[in-house]
Amino acid sequence: GEEIIHSEVQCGGAVSVKFGKGAIIGGKVEATTRIEAKTLGNVHFDKTSLRVGRFIAYEQMREELIRALGQEELIREKMDAAINHLRGMKLRKGAEDKEIEPKLRFLYNESMRYRKLVERLRSRHKELEKLRLNFEKYAYVQAQERIFPGVDVEISDAHYTIRSEEHTSELQSH
Predict the structure, then answer these.
(1) Against a cut of 0.70, is the pTM above it?
(2) Beta carbons within 10 angstroms of residue 49's beta carbon
């Protein structure tokens, strides 16, 4: 497009404003991979926030995975306690109690399914971490002509505040 003015934009890919005026002025623009424009900000120092190298849906999924994995030990302890309780009941009542064995087998099976699920979650978490590092590695913000003071740029965990006007600028996280 030609310009983004005092808007909030979220993009799962790249934001490119290169035609016409090619300006991003004021507001907040977030993109996963890159933000490119001829001009970032303006002479009136309108607050312009730019953020790249992150993907909101990814971050939410990552937080949910971390929360789920954080509960793993507690759930495993509860399952083990239930299995041990049934084992104790089986020992006290003896082999003649036919109601305990199916319950015990069910808990064993559920315990194994849960362990496999946790392994899949850990694997998915590793994949997401690789994806996050890839976002961070290649993310950038580029002003082809000018970037003005008052522009805040966040690339992954790095934060830059533009303090003086610059001509042709490219910012990366590394």
Answers:
(1) no
(2) 16
